[in-house]
């Protein structure tokens, strides 16, 4: 984000965005893991994945409009400010929840009885015959 915020032209801004996109999978994995830790039933994990998908869908249009109206320095600064606004409370939550044991204990376990094991049918996945 610092590269994008300091950019004065398109190549500098693009370099910052490429650097962010290299780090983004690690950050997203951390956020999804934090959501799973906070809510073992998976509700927050689904919301994090949905928010990520929404950002992927709406991000290019939003970024293009922002770059057109505020320029590359303004866009980088807006992205950096948004990242800080999100990172500070998430860090506080992660630090606070790290002090207590995981909430998984006490959840009921659902056991599903299986009548017979699944067996693949013979020749069900043979290659297709050649075209004639």
Features of this protein?
flat, mainly alpha
- Alpha-carbon Rg, integer: 23 Å
Distance between the termini: 57 Å
How much helix is in the residues? 55-70%
pLDDT averaged residue by residue: 79
Instruction: Report the structural category.
Output: mainly alpha
Flag low-confidence runs: none
Domain module count: 1
Principal-axis shape: flat
| Main sheet makeup | none
Element-by-element helix/strand order: HHH
- As a percent range, the share of strand residues is under 5%
Instruction: Give me the count of strands.
Output: 0
Number of helices: 3
Describe the protein.
The protein is mostly helical. It has one domain. Helix content is about 65%, strand content about 0%. The protein contains three helices and no strands. It has helices at about 1-5, 10-40, 45-95. Helix 2 (about 10-40) crosses helix 3 (about 45-95). The longest helix is centred in the middle third of the chain and has 55 residues, at about 45-95. It is flat. About 10% of the residues are buried. The mean pLDDT is about 80.
Please describe the topology of this protein:
Layout: H1 2-6, H2 10-38, H3 43-97
Organism: Streptomyces capoamus
InterPro entries: MFS_trans_sf
Transmembrane segments: 18-38, 45-66, 78-95
Q: Quick recap of the structure?
A:
With 132 residues, the chain is an all-alpha fold.
């Amino acid at each position: 984000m610092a590269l994008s915020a300091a950019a004065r032209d398109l190549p500098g801004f693009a370099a910052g965005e490429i650097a962010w996109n290299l780090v983004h999978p690690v950050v997203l994995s951390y956020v999804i893991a934090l959501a799973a830790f906070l809510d073992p039933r998976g509700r927050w994990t689904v919301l994090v994945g949905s928010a990520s998908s929404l950002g992927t869908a709406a991000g290019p249009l939003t970024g293009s409009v922002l770059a057109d109206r505020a320029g590359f320095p303004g866009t980088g600064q807006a992205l950096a400010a948004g990242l800080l606004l999100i990172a500070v409370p998430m860090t506080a939550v992660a630090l606070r929840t790290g002090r207590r044991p995981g909430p998984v204990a006490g959840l009921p376990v659902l056991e599903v009885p299986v009548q017979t094991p699944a067996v693949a049918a013979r020749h069900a996945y043979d290659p297709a015959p050649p075209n004639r």
